[in-house]
Amino acid sequence: MDDRRVRWLTDLVRLEIELWEHVDARLKRVHGLPLASYEALDVLARGVAFPVAFRVGDLAREMRITVGGASKLAERVRAAGLIERAPDPGDRRASLIALTAAGRAVWTAATVTYEAAVAERLDGVLTDAEQQQMHDLVTRILSTGGVQQSHS
């Protein structure tokens, strides 16, 4: 039996968990910001030009989570004052979300912390070129439909 794919995926998931926990702990300690909240801010900051808003469904699609999960996440981040959430005038069922000025400032500072936390784990283990190569491979798999998004 050849279980290389099982082992590869298991190792990849373990790496993701280790990196997630390290970055999450650092963001919480320095900014009081969980990694999931940072990811929502990052999607908003990189996905559209401030202060243009987009729908919770767009956030869900970008983060590869359910609309219900994105809605709950957006509400937590809104309660922290980092995003604004308003009804979509074109669709009563949808909400529009956008970064607040405070959200933009937290995202900017937290990005520096995030980068440093990842560098602690990867620099010295992988070269910049190897890190870019890994990113390119993961991006290619995700963008070609090699990994399908779950809607459950």
UniProtKB/TrEMBL annotation:
<feature type="domain" description="HTH marR-type">
    <location>
        <begin position="9"/>
        <end position="143"/>
    </location>
</feature>
<dbReference type="InterPro" id="IPR036390">
    <property type="entry name" value="WH_DNA-bd_sf"/>
</dbReference>
<dbReference type="InterPro" id="IPR036388">
    <property type="entry name" value="WH-like_DNA-bd_sf"/>
</dbReference>
<protein>
    <submittedName>
        <fullName>MarR family winged helix-turn-helix transcriptional regulator</fullName>
    </submittedName>
</protein>
<dbReference type="Pfam" id="PF12802">
    <property type="entry name" value="MarR_2"/>
</dbReference>
<dbReference type="InterPro" id="IPR000835">
    <property type="entry name" value="HTH_MarR-typ"/>
</dbReference>
<dbReference type="InterPro" id="IPR039422">
    <property type="entry name" value="MarR/SlyA-like"/>
</dbReference>
